[in-house]
Amino acid sequence: MPRKKSATLFEDSLKGLEEIVEQLEQGDISLEESLKSFEQGVNLTRTCQKALQEAEQKVQILLAKNGQQTLESFNDE
For 44, left (φ over 0), alpha (ψ -120 to 50), or beta? Predict the structure, then answer.
């Protein structure tokens, strides 16, 4: 069940970020509340980044086990 738990954590964090962005875009909150929301957003972003890094590591391990030793970076640039 750890996979499901980390996926849920990622999805919940992402949803929280979306809500914070909507709240900040509306501009109906004070500067102090905006700063608190921004700080919470930074923490949620770190949670999402960690979950994505862990998922990438798992993919790399699975590819290595299947004999595919080379990985290519994904860049849109």
Answer: alpha
Query: Structure pTM?
Result: 0.70
Side-chain-side CA neighbours of 55 within 13 Å: the count stands at: 13
In whole angstroms, what is the distance from residue 45 CA to residue 33 CA? 18
CA within 13 Å, CB half, 50: 10
Tens digit of each residue's pLDDT (9 = 90 or more) over 26-62? 989 999 999 999 999 999 999 999 999 988 898 888 8
Whole-angstrom Cα distance, residue 10 to residue 48?
A: 5
